[in-house]
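Re: beginner question about structure tokens

> Can someone show what the tokenized structure looks like for a real chain? I only ever see the sequence side.

Sure, here's an example I had lying around. Input first:
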Amino acid sequence: MSNGTLADFYLALQGPAGTRRIEIACDVARGLSYLHDDCTRHIIHCDIKPQNILLDGFLTAKISDFGLAKLLMANQTRTTTGVRGTRGYLAPEWFRNMPISSKVDVYSFGILLVELICCRKNYKPESKIEAQIVLVDWAYDCYHDGSVLTLVESDEEASSDIKRVGRFVMTALWCIQEDPSLRPTMKKITRMLEGVVEVPVPQFQALLSVRSWYHQAQDGQREGPISKSEISLYVLEVAYGKGTIDPSGGSVIDAVDPNLEEPESPVHSAEGSNWSVKGDDEEDEDP
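And the corresponding structure tokens:
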């Protein structure tokens, strides 16, 4: 494609204007809706990320790279398969030994949508403000505090239509719900983005429960202080699928090293690694 990938714009000094980013988000949403519901054989892409969104001469977005996609059988909505996709865009259920559905694409799209709104990557360890290292965490803070304008304050065009930015942020927060059953379908997400249906107030129970734990610790109900970085590591555990925070002991187990660079390519199996991408000859189950 003449304009490369969406990832190229994240690295550019100036990305697409706010209105164009909104149209790109809608293009991707409509494309995923088609794959999930309108194809004769429904498809789960499994690797939605900026590098797999191509932009043509008119900056119209096209979903590409179906190398990790899963083709569902007739009347099949879920499948059992090995972990496939790219760190930072993987839904939590990939790591919970449970069947996956098109909702894994919804989660990945939610991360992509927040990145599009702010024109930056989800994980930015070099951020001078700690609260902004994990973009989805910062986006929720801004939404919760009623300061969504902060996310796009450097974008004059987006700032002039803050109501639509708020709708997009709310939609993204629905997409990244930890429970896949709470995530809307891509068809409904498309209607949310287009303003056809009202976006309800999103739930964010997983993040709120950890923050409650954080405040309990600060109040002396749990031994030892817990830093904001540990809260961010929980978000990374959900987003990147590495490490867990144990609320009972307050320890961070095998947490993501914030100094590690996010890989640009899909995660492949390697000796001594917990990550794997399986081939198309694996056996699927239809629960």
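Each token stands for a local structural state, so reading them left to right follows the chain. The longest strand covers residues 53-55.
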